[in-house]
Amino acid sequence: MTVYRYLTNSIGASAFMRQKTPRLSAKNIQDRLNFAKKHQNWGVEDWKKVLWSDESPFELYATPKRHNDRVRAKITKDVPRIWSVKFPQKIHVWGLMSHQALSELHIIPQGQTLNSPYYRDEILTKTCRDAINRTENMGLISERPMFGNMSDFNFMQDGAPVHPAKITQK
C-alpha cells in the first residue's frame, strides 16, 4: 500500500491547497472591528447611499495558474498551448460604484505613481466629479446617475496612503 492510498483510503485524508490569508496587525484588526461596529445596524437603505471607490492593478496576458487550468485530452498534442509573454504589461485602474451605477474606469498612465496630488487632481477632481454629476440616464450602467439624491451619500475608500493624505482631504 502506498502512502497516498493509506492517507486517502485508511484515514480519509485529502490533499488541499493551502489558503492565503492576509497578515493583519493588531491595528488592522482593531480598525476592521471598529468599522464593523460602526456599521452593524445599517440597513439596506443606508448601504444604498454609499459611494465605493477603489483602485487595482491588472496584468495583461497573465498566465493561468497551472493547477487550476486543466484540459481533458487523450494525448498531449491535443492540448492547446498557453501563449505567454516574458514581462506582461500591467495597468492600474480606478473606479467608483454605487448601488445603481458605475463610473468610467480611470486608467492610471504607465509609470505614473498614484500619489496624493495625482489622486486629487486627476481622479477625484475629474473622473469622480464627472460620475457624481451625471443626471441623465443614458442606458449603460456607466452612464447612469450614481444616486437619485446627491445631497445624501457616504464616500467610502480603503486605507491606501493617498486617501487620508491632507492634500486629498481638502
TrEMBL record:
| Organism superkingdom | Eukaryota
* Gene Ontology molecular-function annotations: nucleic acid binding
InterPro entries per record: RNaseH_sf
Q: What is this protein called?
A: Transposase-like
Q: What is the lineage of its organism?
A: Eukaryota, Metazoa, Porifera, Hexactinellida, Hexasterophora
